[in-house]
Amino acid sequence: MNSWTSLEEVRFKSVLSKSRLYMSRWIFYAIPFVAWQGHAQSLSFYAESYRYDETPLMLHGVLGEWTEHQSIQIDNNSGQEINISAHLHRQLPFIYFIDRQNNSGNEIELDIPNGYSYELKVIANLENEHPMVYNDKIGLDITYQSGATSYLEILTSVYFYTSSSLNTSKPEGYNFWGIGGYVRVVDSSSLPLKVYSNHTQHGVSSGWNEIIKKAINTWNNAGKSIGLKSDYFTLTSNSSEADLKIDWSGNNVPVGALGAARLTDTNPSRIIGISLLPPGSDNSLRTAEVLIQELGHILGLAHSTNPNDIMNGHAHPLHHEDLSKISLTSRDRQMLSWLYAQKHYIPIVSGRKTH
Ligand SMILES: [Zn+2]
Are 59 and 95 in contact (CB under 8 A)? Predict the structure, then answer.
């Protein structure tokens, strides 16, 4: 009997909602437990004043990709509820706030009861422009329960650069799915891996095909960007010829997880498969991210500690309004580039029995 290991996605413990109404006001009711890596600025409200540390909010990232998000820690010690309406100045239309449902939008309103804190998350994405630093401010209109109002500005600096500086060193905080210190990668002679998905047996419309295509294309495009000649994955409708099966029955998904990928701990390492929760049991954009991550595991990538990376072990905060906005980070691509440049490796091969 082969031993095997699996890598699993952990459910993000924020309240999930399928609502797309990200401009609406929501009621604060719990302190977020998630430890964001983004540097937190602090903004504290007291009975007669507020304190703001005036450190500029720094966002930087690659043109065409989401930056890492930063957060502003807002503490309400004013003795009354406050409402904050945040808006962007004209220079910064590419900045977005992330709301409690993990949707992104250009404006946000929050109610913070007395004695509570809120972590306001900010992220940016700019396409088709030039590398540049943008400096401006985010305006906060504050209304107290008493009817008093106030206004303050948060200094913000956004720096976009191009991805041409991508190199082949291993990104910090990024792990590979190895055995005994050796990396595991799909041997080029096995490419492309034929992928069979049984989602149509689990009561979904053909619209679900888009999620699977998105996940496969994400890695195929990444492979091309690091000079790979063949695709990593190709779809097949014939389960008997599949090298990799994606099972949407929900079986073999550990409690509390959204999905799992499994390989045998042997040399070569055989693909056992990918297990996911049934289609429709979670936000479809997150499902796409989870599937991208499971496919990444099959390619030999393990988890990244950076919450912005697709390969972060927590299911993702949704910065996206649609599938097209889901992308690998430059760190994800850099890790793939590093992994597939290793001279000594244990090959990952088809899970199909050949005889
Ligand atoms: Zn994972």
Answer: yes
Model pTM score: 0.60
Ligand 1 centroid to Cα of residue 313, in Å, is 5
Q: Which amino acid is at 165?
A: S
Could you tell me the distance, in angstroms and rounded to a whole number, from the CA of residue 48 to the centre of ligand 1?
A: 47
What is the pLDDT tens value at each position of the chain, 355 positions in all? Answer: 457 888 877 654 333 332 322 222 222 222 222 333 344 688 899 988 888 877 778 787 778 877 777 888 899 999 999 999 998 887 788 898 988 777 788 889 999 999 999 989 888 888 877 767 777 888 999 999 999 998 988 888 787 777 654 566 899 999 999 988 899 999 888 999 999 999 989 877 666 888 999 999 999 888 887 778 889 999 999 999 999 999 999 999 988 889 999 999 988 999 999 999 998 888 888 899 999 999 999 999 999 999 889 999 887 767 777 887 888 988 998 999 999 988 889 999 998 865 4
CA of 101 to the centre of ligand 1 (A): 21
> What is the Cα–Cα distance from 178 to 9, expressed in whole angstroms?
18
Measure 293 CA to ligand 1 centroid, in angstroms: 6
Instruction: Please name which of 225, 238, 217, 248 lies closest in space to residue 336, comparing C-alpha atoms.
Output: 225
Q: How far is the centre of ligand 1, averaged over its atoms, from the C-alpha of 317 (Å)? A: 14
Q: Whole-angstrom Cα distance, residue 184 to residue 272? A: 14
Is domain 31-164 classified as CATH 1.10.340.30?
Answer: no
Ion ligand 1: residue ranges with CB closer than 5 A = 7, 9, 293
Place of tokens 């720096």: 159
CATH fold group of domain 4-14+166-349: Collagenase (Catalytic Domain) (3.40.390)
- Ligand 1 centre and the CA of 136: distance in Å? 37
State how far the Cα of 198 lies from the Cα of 29, in Å rounded to an integer.
39
* 305 CA → ligand 1 middle, Å: 11
The letter for the amino acid at 241 is E
Could you tell me the residue ranges of all domains in the chain?
A: 4-14+166-349, 31-164
- Exposed, middle or buried: residue 344 (CB in 10 Å: 0-12, 13-18, 19+)? exposed
